[in-house]
Amino acid sequence: xxxxxxxxxxxxxxxxxxxxxxxxxxxxxxxxxxxxxxxxxxxxxxxxxxxxxxxxxxxxxxxxxxxxxxxxxxxxxxxxxxxxxxxxxxxxxxxxxxxxxxxxxxxxxxxxxxxxxxxxxxxxxxxxxxxxxxxxxxxxxxxxxxxxx
Length: 149
What we know:
1 helix, 8-stranded antiparallel beta barrel, Lipocalin, single chain, mainly beta
């Protein structure tokens, strides 16, 4: 009759093991790898190369962008806040990279759903986040590299 006590214990151990294994591969939560926090903009790149801040790049229509600052904050609840400043020739003297929205993560890939603009993507590699999104118009797409602040 001792084998009857073994069955419920075995069932509980098996259920716990299967539950743990089922959760182990899920990386859709924003903070699964500890990526929440504030990141400072370090580098901006486009077709003409990459530069540390302040970064100056030609736009698709010949104008010149200068990026002077930026930050990205990822919250544990899956929301983000992005800030930043840029100029564009003499046309835009106080450009704002500000944005808010939500993000999801799948492995190293990040997808951002903006409250103000089209969705954009990024990747995470250690303490570095790389985002790709347009500024002013869709033709002027830049790569922004942020590092843990």
